[in-house]
Amino acid sequence: MDKTIALHFIREGHFELAESFMREVGMQISQMEPDVYLPQSMSASWDGANGSEKPIHEDGDQQLDGAEQSMNEDLDRDIDMLAASMTVEQSANGNLQVGEHLTPWQVKEEFREMYRIVEELKEGRVTGALIWAQSHREALRKKESNLEFNLHNLQYMTYLQANQTLDALLYARRWFPDFTARHLPEIQRLLAAICFTDRLATSPYADLVSNIHWQDIQHDFTKEFCSLLGMSAESPLFVSVMVGTIALPTIIKMATIMKDKKTEWSQQDELPVEIPLPENLRYHSIFACPVSKEQATEENPPMMMPCGHVICKESLSKLGKGSRRNSSKFKCPYCPSESTPNQAVRVYF
């Protein structure tokens, strides 16, 4: 939960607040009983001379003093740890290219750039957003995003509103041909609006100069920016609260029924009933093992065999143990292919 809150601050651009929050969380951890061990990232000091890591929890007093000293020496490390976890999650979510190349420092810098560009959009300037969109054109096109066209749309209309008709025409000639395949009707309306330059607000094209377009472009830019980072456009804290709010009535109802029947739910990592979520809150598929019929978990993740079929890790282990004598190979439950447990790779959804 602490990580979710800190990520919320980073996601909202409150970097100093995120650092302060993690420092407070770290101090609270350091004030625990001596027999409670700190996370490894907080329970070690670094030897700057040789880069080696020295454990500091040999006894209670050394553990606490060392933890506070370590946190005071490098407050950024906690935020970097969170950013690193974001990078790991991006890789786990299938964004391998992002996950492999984005460092913790870059994650923070990416969000700083995002908020700088959003501030420009609030001021009616699209230059920064256009530079970003053009540098990520291929990725945006694969997603069938309209962001770059909408930015050009706003810049063109800005020229018209300023009675800079010639600049608007030159701009349209330079950029609009790239988008005729998908946006020809919109481009035709934009060009026709030139005939009403002196009274756009009362013309049939008044909707093109509505301020709502500037609000929409800020949201669209943020959404696409976060999407290319492998993240939701919404704050992780907002998503957590939203999902919890949706799930709460069902869980309360189920708890009441179980209480009346004097039964308990023993599956710690699984809800007793399915919680229906709207499409915008579904970020990945849920895998159910075709052999055991159980849902995959972190402890029992889905594993893909060389033949391409996927089963859970526990089922894979059982198949390996049940293989023929003097042979580590086992047959896939769904095809004639044979393989060993070590050949299977974890699958991320």
TrEMBL record:
UniProt KW keywords: Cytoplasm, Metal-binding, Zinc, Zinc-finger
One BP term from GO: proteasome-mediated ubiquitin-dependent protein catabolic process
Location of the region described as Disordered in the Swiss-Prot/TrEMBL record: 41-63
Pfam families to which the protein is assigned, alphabetical: CTLH (PF10607), zf-RING_UBOX (PF13445)
Subcellular location per the Swiss-Prot or TrEMBL entry: Cytoplasm
RING-Gid-type domain mapped to chain residues: 289-335
Domain CTLH: 110-167
GO cellular component: cytoplasm; GID complex; nucleus
InterPro entries tied to this protein: CRA_dom (IPR013144), CTLH/CRA (IPR024964), CTLH_C (IPR006595), Fyv10_fam (IPR045098), Rmd5_dRing (IPR037683), ZF_RING_GID (IPR044063), Znf-RING_euk (IPR027370), Znf_RING (IPR001841)
ZnF (RING-Gid-type) residues: 289-335
GO molecular function: ubiquitin protein ligase activity; zinc ion binding
Domain RING-type: start-end pairs: 289-335
SMART domains, per database record: CRA, CTLH, RING
Superkingdom, taxonomy of origin: Eukaryota
PANTHER family: GH10162P, MACROPHAGE ERYTHROBLAST ATTACHER-RELATED
Name under which the protein is recorded: GID complex catalytic subunit 2
Organism: Bifiguratus adelaidae
